[in-house]
Every structure is written in structure tokens, then in C-alpha cells.
Design a protein that fits this description.
The complex is a heterodimer of chains A (255) and B (245).
Chain A lengths: L1 E10 L2 E11 L4 E6 L5 H8 L7 E6 L2 E2 L5 H8 L2 E4 L11 H12 L4 H14 L15 H13 L5 E5 L7 H17 L3 E6 L2 H7 L2 E6 L2 E7 H5 L4 H8 L2 H6 L9
Parallel strand pairs in A: 3-8, 3-9, 6-7, 7-8
Antiparallel strand pairs in A: 1-2, 1-4, 4-5, 9-10
Chain B lengths: L1 H18 L4 H16 L3 H22 L8 H41 L2 H7 L4 H38 L5 H10 L3 H27 L4 H31 L1
Helix pairs in contact in B: 1-6, 2-6, 3-4, 3-6, 4-6, 4-7, 4-8, 4-9, 6-8, 8-9
Classes of the chains: A alpha/beta (255), B mainly alpha (245).
């Protein structure tokens, strides 16, 4: 379980958000939505202390991540997998080595075990046989999937997605969304998805946090989101109305 | 104010690097990679720099001493001593600030803006140990080796230019070089190259590691790393000369 308590962050005099508080239960998928520049990615990077707040706490298993010593923090971070917005693949090594990277440094697995695990992870994201490819040869969607394979290779407890479908065509976006749902189910992972794509929210999330006007403006389930009258949230949702109409809301994974 | 903040950040990075230098297993592979990048791949430019520095110095010294009042072997003495004490270390330092420093700051800057450093940290890596420590170690260990190459080839360039231009034969050049050779000059050159290796790699790591703002930010970081490396190489050269000579 992740508990976010009164988190406040600013860069210099520019306040990003303040007093953000919410809980994420184990096994849940939470979507954090909001306009571009509202600080969603900044919030995500606080969950495993890649960034530190001005005030507030992120509590995991009863301990605030910001109070951990660096050695403890590194161990805690290994419980997280992150899919970064641009996938953040290491461009000096190929696809196979990118996925194998955490295994080589954090496990004592033999070369054949590493090969098996990497191939399994690549198969999980529908990229069988892509191992020898240079990362520069991969399309945007493939890069995200390789990033996802690398993020889950150590079997994390928490999986963070930073704009997993941004810059992708609708079909590839849908494939990524299906992967998120399937990984959450098969690996029993708690997932936090940063997005402004309502399509994605409806396909993958159980709960939604809406960041607006420098605060957590709304928090609730996907069902509740469909039946409430929060003006800013409605405006945000309706801006994606065309997309939503093409994909029935009843298709959402709830509860 | 900004300069103080930058100095604080730089000191903090060095402190972290020093603390994490014990995590040898994290950076072992990268260290050998950096030895190749900083040392082996710099040999061609260092050879070129060394030979031409010595050659030009011989021609200029011969021109300035063309009075008939001095024995010609003095040209060998002045060239070899200048190369060993000053020029091999400083000129190769300035060249390497461009070659090695720019590469380091661009690599780390690109990794920073494309979130590769965040990816490392999020996996539980100590990114300073993984990225910064091997680069600085390669700098302080490889620059003295490159200095030896630059100094040797500088003397060789001097001999070659003197012989080809008919100024003085190789034996005469070596007579002067031997007569004015002092072992402490070589030690001085080693100290300089060691310090320059540290200055260039640490500044470049610092600028790259804290780069921000996309491609433009990486460009800015690289430019600053190169300029600052050159400035601090010259400043360190002056301070070392004042202390050690």
C-alpha cells in the first residue's frame, strides 16, 4: 500500500501542487490525470523518491520513503518498475541487454537463466525475437514495450507508467493498455498510470486522481467519475468525448 | 549566488563520488570501458599534438636563438624541457578538454534529459557510482599515461624538425636534452596531468549530470563543460607552477 500525505512541491517560486493526499491499495490500478504541465510526472517521481517534496510524505509499508537512507532507498526502489515517457532505454546497448540490465547487476543468475528470463519478458510484451535489435531500430510503441519488459524483469511490487500511450497511434495505444491490464493481473502488481488520455484511463484504471489548479482536485473510482459533477473534471473528460464515444464506458475495467 | 550554488552542487557530487568509489562491482565494467574511451581512443590526437608541439617549438627556438652566441644543442635543451615541464601536459590537457570533456558531458547530459539516469536510479543503481566514478578515475589514471606519450612524441617531433630543417642533428638535440634533463620535471608533468585529468573529467561529469532542457540544454552543458575545463586547466597550471617550481 502506498500512502501519499500532504505532499507539496515547488520549483523555486513556482508551486507545482500542494497538500496532495491519497492512498493506493495493493493490487489496484490508479490513473493520475490532469492537463499537460500540471505536475503529474513530478508526482510520479515522488513515489519512489526520484524527487523530493518541499513537504509531505510518501509512506510505503509504514515507512516514509524520504526518510530512508540511500542504501535502504535503493532497495526500496527495486520494488518499483517504471515505464518512462520516452522509455529511457540505454542507447549504448541492444534491446536484449536493456532488458537483461537489472538482472546482470542485481541477481546472480547464469547467462542461460538471464537469456530465459529476458526472452520470457520480451514474449510477455509481444516482442519475441527483438533482442538483437539496436534501440534506435525500434518504433515508439516497441520502445515502450521494451521499457515495460525491463520494468517488470525483477518482478516489482509497484509499476509506474509515465504517459504510456503518448505519441502512439490508437491501435498501439490500445495494445499498451491491454498490456498494462494483463501485467497487473498476471503479476499482481499495484500500478500507477500517469496520463491525459481518457481512453487509457477507462481501459486500465480502477481509481482516478485528478490534478488541477495546483492540487488534487478529485479522487475516486472510475464508476464515481462517470456519475459526478465536478466541473473541471467534466470539462477534462468531455474534451475526450469523441474518443470515449468510440469506446463504450462499459468496457472499462472496474473494481 | 548562482556560482556558490554551482560550487555546492559540484562539491556534493564529488563527495558522493568519493563515497561511492568503494562500490567497485557497480562500476568495474564501466571503468575498463572508460580507460579505452579516455586513454586508448585519445592516443591519435595526443600523438599529433605532441609531435607538432615539439616540432614547432624547435623551429621557433632556433629562430629566436639564431644569433651565433649559443651552442645549437641549447635548442634541444629548451625544447625538451619546455615540452616535459609545460607543453605536453597543458596542450594535451586543452585538447582533451575538447575531446574527452565534451564526450563525457554530452553522454551524461543526454542520459539526463532522456531520463536514462532516472531509469538507473529507479532500478536501485547508484548513478554517481555507475557513471561519474569510472569517468573521473579514468581521467586521473589515463591522463598521466597520455602525458608520457605527448612528452615523448614532443621530444621526437623536436628532433625530427631540427634534423629535417637542417637546424641541428639528432645527436646534438639529444645532447642538449640530456644535459638539462631533471627527473623532478617529469614528476611535475605527471602531477599536472593527474590534476588536469581530474579537473576535466569532474567538471564535465558535473555539467552533464545536471544538464536540463532537452537538446539545447545538452548543448549548453557541453559548451560550459569544455570552456570551464579549459579555464580551470590554465588556472590549475598557474597554481601548480607557483607551488611546485
Amino acid at each position: 500500500m502506498i500512502q501519499v500525505r500532504n505532499l507539496t512541491k515547488s520549483f523555486g517560486t513556482n508551486l507545482v501542487w500542494e497538500n496532495v493526499s491519497f492512498d493506493i491499495e495493493a493490487g489496484e490500478t490508479l490513473a493520475i490525470i490532469g492537463k499537460s504541465g500540471s505536475g503529474k510526472s513530478v508526482l510520479l517521481k515522488h513515489l519512489n523518491a526520484l524527487m523530493y517534496p518541499d513537504a509531505g510524505e510518501v509512506i510505503i509499508d509504514g515507512r516514509c520513503v524520504f526518510d530512508l537512507r540511500y542504501g535502504e532507498l535503493r532497495k526500496m526502489r527495486q520494488r518499483f518498475g517504471i515505464l518512462f515517457q520516452g522509455a529511457a532505454l540505454f542507447d549504448s546497448i541492444n534491446t536484449f541487454e536493456n532488458v537483461a540490465f537489472p538482472l546482470r547487476y542485481f541477481t546472480n543468475q547464469s547467462e542461460s537463466e538471464i537469456r530465459d528470463h529476458v526472452e520470457e519478458a520480451l514474449a510477455m510484451v509481444n516482442l519475441e525475437g527483438a533482442g538483437p535489435k539496436a534501440t534506435s531500430e525500434l518504433s515508439g510503441g516497441m520502445r515502450k514495450r521494451v521499457g515495460l519488459a525491463r520494468a517488470v524483469i525483477l518482478k516489482p511490487d509497484y509499476l509506474l507508467y509515465d504517459e504510456p500511450t503518448s505519441g502512439l497511434d490508437p491501435l498501439t495505444s490500445s495494445e499498451i493498455n491491454e498490456l498494462i491490464v494483463s501485467l497487473a493481473g498476471t503479476l499482481d502488481i499495484t500500478s500507477i498510470v500517469i496520463t491525459h488520455d481518457m481512453h487509457s484511463v477507462l481501459e486500465v484504471a480502477e481509481k482516478v486522481a485528478f490534478i488541477d489548479e495546483k492540487k488534487l482536485s478529485w479522487f475516486g473510482t472510475v464508476q464515481e467519475m462517470q456519475h459526478q459533477d465536478h466541473p473541471q473534471l467534466m470539462k477534462f473528460v468531455r474534451a475526450s468525448e469523441y474518443q470515449i464515444q468510440t469506446k463504450p464506458i462499459s468496457g472499462a475495467k472496474i473494481g | 549566488m548562482d556560482a556558490i550554488k554551482q560550487f555546492g552542487q559540484y562539491s556534493q557530487l564529488l563527495y558522493q563520488a568519493l563515497r561511492s568509489s568503494t562500490e567497485f562491482s557497480t562500476y568495474r565494467k564501466n571503468l575498463f570501458h572508460e580507460f579505452v574511451k579516455v586513454g586508448y581512443e585519445s592516443i591519435p590526437i595526443i600523438m599529433l599534438t605532441g609531435v607538432f608541439t615539439g616540432a614547432v617549438l624547435t623551429l621557433q627556438t632556433a629562430y629566436q636563438l639564431d644569433t651565433g652566441l649559443y651552442p645549437t644543442y641549447i635548442i634541444g635543451a629548451i625544447t625538451s624541457q619546455s615540452v616535459i615541464i609545460e607543453l605536453a601536459a597543458v596542450i594535451s590537457g586543452l585538447v582533451l578538454a575538447g575531446k574527452v570533456g565534451a564526450r563525457i558531458s554530452t553522454e551524461l547530459g543526454t542520459m539526463r534529459v532522456s531520463e536514462q539516469i532516472d531509469a538507473l536510479e529507479s532500478m536501485g543503481f547508484n548513478s554517481v557510482s555507475f557513471l561519474v566514478v569510472p569517468r573521473i578515475l579514468a581521467g586521473i589514471l589515463m591522463f598521466p599515461v597520455l602525458y608520457v606519450a605527448a612528452a615523448s612524441l614532443g621530444v621526437f617531433g623536436g628532433i625530427l624538425a631540427g634534423a629535417l630543417d637542417g637546424i641541428l642533428p639528432a645527436a646534438e638535440f639529444m645532447k642538449g636534452a640530456r644535459a638539462f634533463f631533471f627527473a623532478e620535471d617529469v614528476v611535475f608533468g605527471f602531477v599536472k596531468s593527474f590534476v588536469f585529468g581530474f579537473v576535466i573529467t569532474s567538471i564535465s561529469c558535473f555539467k552533464g549530470y545536471f544538464a536540463f532542457g532537452g537538446a539545447e540544454g545538452v548543448g549548453t552543458a557541453t559548451t560550459k563543460a569544455t570552456v570551464l575545463s579549459c579555464v580551470y586547466v590554465l588556472l590549475a597550471d598557474f597554481i601548480l607552477a607557483a607551488i611546485l617550481l
